[in-house]
Amino acid sequence: MSSWLPRNVSTFGGDVDGIFWLIFYMTAAWFVLTEGLIVYFAFRFRRRVGRRAAYVTGSGWKQLSWVLVPVAVVIVLDVFLDLRGAEVWARIKGQPPPPALVVRGTGKQFNWEFTFPGRDGSFDTPDDLHVENNLHVPAGKVIHVVLTSKDVIHSFFLPHLRLKQDVVPGRQITVWFEATQPGEYEIPCAELCGFGHSGMKGMLYVHTQQDFDKWLAERLAETDALAARKQR
Amino acid sequence: MSRDFHSVHSEPSGFLRRYVFSTDHKVIAKQYLALSMFWGLFGGATAYLIRWQLARPEAEVPGWGYVSPDVYNALVTMHGTIMVFFVAMPFLLAVFGNFLIPLMIGARDMAFPRLNMLSVWVFFLASVTLLASIFVPGGPASAGWTGYPPLSAKPEYTGVDWGLNLWILALALEFASFLLGGINFLTTVMNLRAPGMTFFRLPMLVWMQLIAAVVFMISVGPLIAGAVMLLLDRIAGTTFYLPEGGGEPLLWQHLFWFFGHPEVYVILLPAFGIILDVMSVFSRKPVFGYRPIIYASLVAGFLSFVVWAHHQYISGLDPRLAMPFSVTTILISVPFSFVVFSMIATLWGGSIQFTTPMLFAVGSLGVFIFGGLTGIFNGSAPFDIYIHDTYFVVAHFHSTLISAVFFGGLAGLYFWFPKMFGRMMNETLGKIHFWLTFACFILVFGPMHLLGLGGMMRRIANPLQYDFLKPLEPLNLFITIAATVLILSQVIFVVNFVVSLVRGKAAASNPWKANTLEWATASPPPHENFEKIPSVYRGPYEYSVPGASDDWLPQDRPLADAGAAAR
Predict the structure, then answer these.
(1) Which chain A positions have a beta carbon within 8 Å of B314's beta carbon?
(2) What is the value of pTM for the model shown?
């Protein structure tokens, strides 16, 4: 069963999966109980000649308690689930931890555009680094991605990191994650955004810090060279 | 017992007046039935194309050809629109509400028969408009059945122009039709109940139709306003939803889901009414907790208005709003679990006869429990981060809606077919239909949850473009084959329906020995329903009353049965 969820590579992914398993065991128990009762009653009380059905109206507290007690159990479980859920939600969607790197992510029909601050560490300066579709980050660091869209609503989905956020034009929405393992992970768009929706695929490259620094330096050098050639 | 069925008022003569421009609620119900069956087949065909595209994205769909991504988007849009608005609503509300409400409360017709005729004709117009939208240049709407702007608000984002305008128009007409219907349902139940038919002697189906009508009326207003704004954005250059002009795309989502979530219960509640009625008859037992079920349904109807944002946990909403909506969403499991436990308790100690309608009713309950439980996963905000917009959601809402529309609706159709058409349906074919449908349903929508857990997004035409989805390909093929068998199984139903209509065994006025008033008149009921308006002496579910000679006591039987007089 667990193999169905893609391998988790984020710090909060385990909490999300934990909520899944919590609900899974809770609902599985109810499923077996209720469906089991239906099947049992269907056989036990099937029509037989000469036997008359019991006249049970379910009025009065005594009879109603047959259903009110299980309902009470449902309420208790609901509250428990909401409390557990609130913790996890607050951790992921509440105040994000301070970032080691901030990247801008812009959705458009039909690709992702990532902007890294250059050497000066701030955006909207000439040394900003623009990368189509590929998001490069170091592992083990808190990354903030500031999401916006140029046209329609997209959804920034990182299945392996248990992260998803709709990208809404006219808004800047910050999400964060901390990847635990270097590797390459796909970034689909999860919100219908037009005929190219299906193939709107970005890539997340999680590097070691060393590799990331190397990648960044190479890319910055490339853009420097490009800018120098333009000036000439 | 012989009866004379000549009505005081004569039936209108002439084919047009009798079958086309009829004000008779029974004819109107059948018109809705014909339209919803047409759309059901159409919607089934779109499902077939969608499933084969997903199973073999790079091959041609058998019997159709290549499905391009924009055609695929149009297919998913049309499938959702058709199934929710042109199948589920007319089938569960208009067919059963129109046919049964006057009969069950002992009335001659709806309160406003001409308004009723208008409602079906407005729905017909909506159907024509939706059909037309497929054939206009640029093709049909392709922004998803939820029509999120800005995608839906500017023609250049989808390449669809008039197709989407007509889509909005078709929906507006459809809503108008159901508003007219709802007004009629309410007024009829308020005013035309037979003597002795108090509110707490109404059959469950009537109660559920009433609650559904009220929920629909309250929820639909904001959506109509939203649809007008969307149409203005498209054709008049306004920017209600376009950020470049100061608009707000999320406004639509709030208006849409403020309507859209209650809409689910608008569909679900009438199905509950059917299931409870059918279960009571074939268990020969009263509905367990008749009044509390009504209260629980009212609570569910109310709660349905405070859960809409659970569709928007990750839409860009303030994250602090997620928890209140998560609490209300998960709390809605309370009234529903009450109803479900009561249904199960209705079976307890019964004398259960598994006719086709009963199989569909119990199957419906079984499937609804499954769909309801998977809803907990979606309702929980933190896990929704992962499964939102994946096939888990698709699997979940098909489980709940198919349990209602398909299993619940078919339970009702098999059950009331003799009353509607005066003939019995074939039981053997009915049972084969049920078991095939039930088995295939499990094989389609059970595994579909796994697609979602695997991360497969909704509305993508080609999952093979993603490496992490490639392992799901065999599962997709398996689901598609099961879905194809599921769709083909419906041929059995169509054959049974048509053949029974023409050559079925003639139905007695009360073939199932049921208590409610619709069985107190001929099958099919004459013009104006009852020879004489019946008087009502008791509640609708007096089965197996101790001391009574039969195991049923019709609502209109005047003599207090020996031993049961105390009731």
Answers:
(1) 155, 164-166
(2) 0.94
